[in-house]
Specification:
By secondary structure, the chain is α/β, with parallel strands linked by helices. It is built from eleven helices and 14 strands. The chain is elongated and about 70 Å long. Bound molecules: S-adenosylmethionine. S-adenosylmethionine binds next to helix 7.
Length: 372
């Protein structure tokens, strides 16, 4: 089986978690960079990464890497990529990308050049003047950073955050990949009880339950590369079956959600059901001011309103003060709260035991970790 150099782009702050996930699944030459993790592996690893990665946005295969400062250099190097090894005669292959801090800064021009190079080489190889592009889509992506061009094939298609359980959500849902990262940082056990008193559409609790039960996030969704010609079809079924066989059953793990909005309660239960984890959920309508952990041990994992899309800034700050009171310091109780508010610790009333910089979409945040 051929070996591919791959890239897994991710939200800033999650790179080390993605690298760890890739190492655990057997990827080679794992190298975490800013906003992405590079790795190598065979076709099985490509399928495995798509099915199992919790914190990455997509999985891409690197097909070209070179330096270019003129359009001619971009044309020449793009024509050297063996496109016919990846694309069939009728495959559709749109091109999209970005450029930063580079001489070649016009993205539409670079896009057109890479497309033309692929078309020229393919037309020559297949001996036809016009490629129909009526077949499966092979999305070509490129990045140009400081004049270094990387050309990639997007094997995922729809972003990996789309697990299939959250067609509906409340107003300000956290991205599934970030929620999974927070759950990984919470160091959950088989018998943990996880609480979210601002559960919204339930993402943090659902990702926690999937992590605890070892349910791979991509088991039930499709990926673009399943329809490609150069990757063996059977690997997808094999990798899905292997992931399904590793699901842990009968754990005492529990999720307890609450939200002041009754629609959120309903949505969390619906989404948990779709994700196949509702049997460990208890969700109620409640104001966070009445929150308490009734058991000796428990982990709070939460994403309270920021005062951007929901509530205003003053109300959001009052909620942080309230959290400082109800999230009592007690042996066996841990709290992980994500917030963009730089005054968070002052308002909360305690300095966090640990902080970690994370991005909620484009919003720079900190994850505040309180261990007791
Ligand atoms: C940022 S959203 C949480 C989104 C959630 N993590 C998700 O993925 O859907 C904040 C949630 O806090 C809820 N909320 C606001 N004030 C509250 C309060 N005083 N008590 C409990 N819930 C509250 C809102 O209804 C909203 O669902």
């Amino acid at each position: 089986m051929s070996t591919y150099r791959c890239a897994a782009p991710c939200l800033f702050g999650l790179e080390s978690l993605v690298a760890k996930e890739l190492e655990q699944m057997g990827a080679q030459e794992v190298n975490a960079q800013n906003g992405r993790v590079l790795f190598s592996g065979d076709a099985k690893i490509v399928a495995r990464a798509n099915i199992r990665l919790r914190c990455a946005e997509r999985v891409e295969i690197v097909v070209g890497q070179f330096r270019a400062v003129t359009f001619q250099q971009l044309i020449d190097a793009s024509e050297l990529i063996p496109w016919e090894q990846y694309l069939r005669e009728d495959d559709a292959f749109p091109v999209a990308g970005w450029s930063r801090d580079s001489k070649l800064f016009s993205v539409p021009d670079c896009q057109a050049i890479i497309k033309k190079a692929a078309v020229n080489r393919m037309a020559k190889h297949y001996g036809i003047a016009r490629l129909p592009e009526t077949g499966p889509k092979v999305q070509i992506r490129f990045s140009i950073l400081k004049d270094e061009v990387t050309v990639l094939l997007d094997t995922s298609g729809v972003g990996l955050h789309k697990r299939g359980y959250r067609e509906n959500s409340t107003e300000a849902p956290i991205k599934e990949t970030l929620a999974a990262g927070m759950a990984m940082l919470a160091r959950l056990y088989d018998d943990s009880v996880v609480y979210d008193p601002f559960c919204g559409s339930g993402t943090l609790l659902i990702e926690s339950a999937m992590l605890a039960r070892n349910i791979a996030p991509g088991i039930r969704r499709a990926f673009s590369a399943e329809r490609w010609g150069f990757l063996p079809r059977e690997i997808w079924t094999q990798e899905r079956m292997a992931a399904i066989s590793e699901i842990k059953k009968g754990l005492p793990f529990r999720c307890v959600g609450s939200d002041v909005d009754p629609k959120a309660v309903e949505l969390t239960l619906q989404n948990a059901k779709k994700a196949g984890v509702a049997d460990c959920f208890t969700v109620t309508q409640a104001d966070a001011k009445d929150f308490c952990i009734p058991t000796p041990r428990g982990v709070v994992l939460t994403n309270p309103p920021y005062g951007e899309r929901l509530l205003d800034q003053a109300e959001a700050k009052q909620l942080t003060q309230l959290m400082g009171k109800v999230f009592v310091k007690d042996y066996g109780k841990r709290y992980l709260i994500i917030s963009p508010d730089e005054e968070f610790e002052t308002l909360f009333g305690r300095k966090a035991d640990k902080r970690r910089k994370l991005y909620n979409g484009m919003i720079p945040c900190q994850l505040y970790l309180y261990y007791q």
